[in-house]
């Protein structure tokens, strides 16, 4: 049992069902178009490579909100001891199909039972924006406690001030989830409040596929 329980988002079940509905379309999109695959995005790949280099031999890495396992699989190819978790059972089915060599399990970021100083690295790669604004700080604090001294955390998310309710996605499939956007300085502040030390930040301008984004990497102090 966690020493610090995290509030359960009121919409967690609806969000899970929504991602189950789009999981097959999303996995097909990644495989056929490369959208969402860091190998096709040099700056995102560089961020993940820097994270992998920093984690080194520190220990296990957890990809939280791994979706169909694209980044998990890439880090496995890099030689890291990595596993992935996702809220959506159907996303995990796709991850296991596409990356059978990797370990995956179904879990919400709010339900993880992580031991103190048990991980060398944690990723929240475009996967934490559905967490309510009062829940994200709790999750970040849990990640910080789970990292070993010197361990690394990397997050990527959508930039903005608003909360956007999405009603269809990936082939006009009906969904229901809220994207909570954050200003880069807000996200950095939350990461610092969780007890981590930010070490790098990458700001991404809007393009033809998505709005602006930000990548932040931080360490647990040694």
UniProtKB/TrEMBL annotation:
GO terms for biological process: methylation. InterPro entries: Methyltransf_25, SAM-dependent_MTases_sf. One of its GO terms (molecular function) is methyltransferase activity. It comes from the Bacteria. Keywords: Methyltransferase, Transferase. Residues 61-151 form the Methyltransferase domain. This is Class I SAM-dependent methyltransferase. It comes from Streptomyces rectiviolaceus.
């Amino acid at each position: 049992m966690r020493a610090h329980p995290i509030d359960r988002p009121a919409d967690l079940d609806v969000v899970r069902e929504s991602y189950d509905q789009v999981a097959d379309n999303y996995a097909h999109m990644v495989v056929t178009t490369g959208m969402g695959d860091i190998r096709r995005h040099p700056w995102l790949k560089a961020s993940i490579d820097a994270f992998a280099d920093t984690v080194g031999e520190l220990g296990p890495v957890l990809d939280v909100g791994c979706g169909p396992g694209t980044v998990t699989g890439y880090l496995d190819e890099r030689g890291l001891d990595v596993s992935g978790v996702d809220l959506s059972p159907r996303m995990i089915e796709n991850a296991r199909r596409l990356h059978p060599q990797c370990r995956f399990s179904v879990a919400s970021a709010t339900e993880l039972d992580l031991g103190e100083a048990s991980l060398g690295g944690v990723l929240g790669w475009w996967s934490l924006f559905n967490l309510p604004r009062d829940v994200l700080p709790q999750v970040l604090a849990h990640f910080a406690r789970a990292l070993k001294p010197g361990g690394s955390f990397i997050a990527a998310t959508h930039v903005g001030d608003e909360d956007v309710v999405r009603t269809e996605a990936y082939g006009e499939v009906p969904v229901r989830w809220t994207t909570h956007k954050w200003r880069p300085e807000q996200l950095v502040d939350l990461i610092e409040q969780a007890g981590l030390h930010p070490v790098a930040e990458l700001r991404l301008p809007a393009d033809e596929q998505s709005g602006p984004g930000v990548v932040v990497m931080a360490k647990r102090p040694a």
